[in-house]
From TrEMBL, chain A:
Coarse class of the protein's main subcellular location: membrane
Protein name, as recorded: ABC transporter permease
Transmembrane segments: 21-41, 263-287, 308-331, 343-365, 372-389, 427-449
Species the sequence originates in: Patulibacter brassicae
Source taxonomy: Bacteria, Bacillati, Actinomycetota, Thermoleophilia, Solirubrobacterales
InterPro entries hit by this protein: ABC-2_transporter_component, ABC2_TM
UniProtKB/TrEMBL annotation, chain B:
Origin: domain of life: Bacteria
SMART domains found in the cross-reference section: AAA
Gene3D superfamilies: P-loop containing nucleotide triphosphate hydrolases (3.40.50.300)
Primary residence: membrane
GO terms for MF: ATP binding
Protein known as: ABC transporter ATP-binding protein
UniProtKB keywords: Antibiotic resistance, ATP-binding, Nucleotide-binding, Transport
Cellular localization per UniProt: Cell membrane
Species of provenance: Patulibacter brassicae
All copies of domain ABC transporter, residue ranges: 19-236
Length: 451, 246
């Protein structure tokens, strides 16, 4: 029986070689889909185009912040980090272009921004805060929301930075008030005595006074000054903690994440493998029905089990070759570690075999090649989409259903295994899972072929 | 053999049967496709299996070929010794004639496969087209490949399911010349057909199936005699009578 596998595989390979259109569809289409999917996954959302309208008069756009010159335009640009910024002259032009969809949004710096910022930084209790205007085109809710979220996050960062600088300035002033020294702000200029110096003078003065009410008064003022020195000394540290009250320490409980580009490569390889193997496996079995040769084969010495195994083998081999092509093609760009290359082939072969067995089962159900291909595509699209849903992003019932679907089709474990082969992750578990799936789908194909 | 009508003057077969089936019954859910059918075919004999659509001809051939299992009854010859030639060519259209023959010879375990392939190419008049893809041949050419594949294992019995249905008259004539040659060489042939004229011209005996039962078995002349020598009229009368009875 084993000697018959060779002629069967050779026959199928010969039939495939003489069907260039079919072969092209089966190999080129999955490759294109996989590469596009990988490309989409490896890149974040593209930078939105944002317009900047600076209405602050020329030469008046800077403000002194503790000796550092802060430019309002630089501040605005900081809000727009991660976007493609273009300057425009007027607010009207910005409104028109945002409304026309030329840009995702615009940020307008009003003429009084710097004056207001300067007033705030003078620490005179100025309450009229500088306000930037953000224009968005809300006809595309996703893009508008993305831009709002981006600007909010950047605004938080920029405000936190200014607050920190203000606290540093305030802390400096407080230090001079405590210790004494030169001060040139808050309307004061020249040498400042400081509370510590005042306390010392008062202590000495009290020592030279005779006992009595005057000496008691001086001592009382001196104790107050000493108390202020001792307690206000902690204030800069307290203010510093307010400037940066919460810090984040990130700990991964699952080990370090796989590099996004590597993951995209694994997805591209797994998708192409799945599509090629399933379409090929399904097509090879359905072709036997279409050519009416199935009856003739099962009347000969060929038993259905080895017949299906031969088709699974060929589908798996071709798919693994396509997967190797995808991974090998991506390797120089993604920078895959060379020492893991020996793990690639077993991972691709196992994923190909399980996917080929699934295809063979679908082909056993279909009356001819077109029906088999349609059935395969209809099944694979949701399987791939479901397989890419991240854990924990859906409710518990849906999550259990997704886990169940992922477990019975080869895409999920195949993606895990290919990812592990390319960079890191569990290797043996998914490998065993795929081997079990191969046998299970072959058994289903055997039953389906009896119809 | 179970039959509703038989010509007693003609023996079922001149020599001992090489294919004998008894009590064959096959059901598809509630429908009885074959009901207690028996059949003998002798070496060198051509038997035409006649019947209207749905009478059970293809089911009977499938049971005899081992493609399906009967619900009851027995076939006295293992499927490997029965050559099966389906109605539509069951060969790979993208492979050449020779590649098809070589593949099936190997899968059938034919001894000295290369010599057998060459012989079948000659017998089926396919030598000139041996390296052409089957898909490039005419309907008649494809049917000859189909028959050649069915004969690769040199079976003593050959089953043919409406072998001439897709052929033009000239191709039919060539095919039947080939088949009668096989019978002269001692093979037993059982061929289903809708063409009563073909049965009259080439068959030694006819078996008429109506509604899953054997309605007649005997020579074509004996069947024709039941309607004043008109075989077609006799066949139609038999079918209508059988259907009325059912």
């Amino acid at each position: 029986m084993r000697g018959l596998l060779g002629p069967l595989v050779a026959k199928d390979a010969r039939v495939l070689r003489r069907s260039p259109l079919l072969l092209g569809l089966l190999v080129v289409y999955p490759l294109l889909v996989a590469l596009l999917l990988g490309l989409a996954l490896s890149r974040g959302p593209s930078s939105p185009s944002v317009l900047l309208v600076n209405q602050v008069p020329e030469g008046r756009s800077t403000v002194d912040l503790a000796g550092e010159q802060l430019d309002a335009r630089t501040y605005a640009l900081r809000l727009l980090e991660g976007t493609d910024v273009q300057s425009v002259a007027t607010r009207e032009e910005a409104v028109r272009r945002v409304r026309d969809g030329d840009a995702a949004g615009a940020i307008v710096i009003p003429p009084d921004t710097v004056d207001r910022l300067r007033a705030v930084l003078s620490l005179r209790g100025e309450r009229t805060l500088p306000t930037l205007e953000v224009l968005t085109n809300d006809t595309d809710p996703v893009r508008a929301e993305a831009l709002r979220t981006l600007i909010s996050a950047r605004l938080g960062d920029a405000n936190a930075e200014i607050s920190k600088r203000l606290i540093e300035v305030g802390g400096g002033y407080l230090g001079v008030l405590l210790q004494g020294g030169n001060l040139s702000v808050l309307g004061l200029r020249g040498d400042i005595l400081g509370l510590r110096g005042a306390s010392e003078i008062l202590r000495r003065t009290a020592g030279s006074l005779p006992a009595g009410s005057q000496r008691d008064d001086v001592l009382r003022v001196q104790r107050f000054a000493q108390l202020a020195v001792e307690n206000l000394g902690f204030t800069p540290a307290i203010l510093q903690s307010i400037a940066d009250p919460i810090r984040v320490k990130r700990t991964s409980v699952t080990g370090p994440a796989v590099d996004l580009e590597t993951y995209a490569g694994a997805v591209a390889a797994a998708v192409s493998l799945l599509l090629v193997a399933v379409l090929l496996g399904a097509g090879l079995v359905a072709l036997e029905r279409e050519e009416r040769t199935l009856g003739r084969l099962v009347r000969s010495a060929v038993r259905p089990g080895p017949l299906l195994a031969a088709k699974t083998l060929l589908a798996g081999l071709v798919a693994a070759a396509v997967g190797l092509l995808v991974v090998g093609g991506l390797a120089p760009f993604v920078g895959l570690p060379a020492e893991r290359i020996p793990l690639w082939v077993p991972a691709l072969l196992l994923t190909g075999a399980a996917s080929g067995a699934l295809g063979v089962a679908l082909g056993s159900l279909a009356p001819e090649v077109r029906a088999a291909s349609l059935l395969a595509i209809l099944l694979l699209v949701p399987v791939v989409v479901i397989g890419l849903v991240p854990d924990g992003t859906v409710g518990s019932v849906t999550g259990v259903a997704i886990d169940g679907v992922t477990a019975i089709f080869p895409f999920g474990p195949g993606l895990d295994l290919v990812t592990a082969a390319l960079e890191r992750g569990a290797y043996v578990g998914p490998a065993i899972h795929l081997a079990v799936l191969t046998l299970a789908w072959l058994a289903i194909a055997r039953v389906a072929l009896r119809r | 053999m179970t039959s509703a009508a038989e010509d007693p003057a003609v023996p079922a077969a001149a020599s001992p049967p090489v294919l004998r089936a008894t009590g064959l019954t096959r059901r598809y859910r509630d429908r009885v496709a074959l009901d207690d059918v028996g059949l003998d075919v002798a070496a060198g004999e051509i038997v035409a299996l006649l019947g209207p659509n749905g009478a059970g001809k293809t089911t009977l051939l499938s049971l005899l070929a081992g493609l399906q299992e009967p619900d009851a009854g027995e076939v006295g010859l293992p499927p490997r010794q029965v050559g099966w030639i389906p109605q539509q060519p069951a060969v790979y259209r993208r492979l050449t004639v020779r590649e098809n023959l070589e593949l099936f010879a190997r899968l059938d375990g034919v001894p000295d496969a290369a010599a057998r392939v060459e012989r079948m190419l000659v017998e089926a008049d396919l030598v000139d087209r041996a390296d052409d893809r089957v898909g490039d041949l005419s309907g008649g050419g494809q049917q000859r490949v189909n028959i050649a594949v069915g004969l690769l294992a040199d079976p003593p019995v050959v089953l043919l399911d409406e072998p001439s249905s897709s052929l033009d008259p000239r191709q039919r004539e060539r095919m039947w010349r080939f088949l009668t040659g096989l019978a002269r060489d001692g093979r037993a042939l059982l061929s289903s057909t809708h063409d009563v004229g073909e049965a009259e011209r080439y068959a030694d005996r006819v078996v008429v199936l109506v509604d899953g039962r054997v309605a007649f078995t005997g020579t074509p002349a004996a069947l024709a005699a039941t309607a004043g020598g008109d075989l077609l009229r006799a066949f139609v009368d038999l079918v209508e009578a059988g259907e009325a009875e059912a």
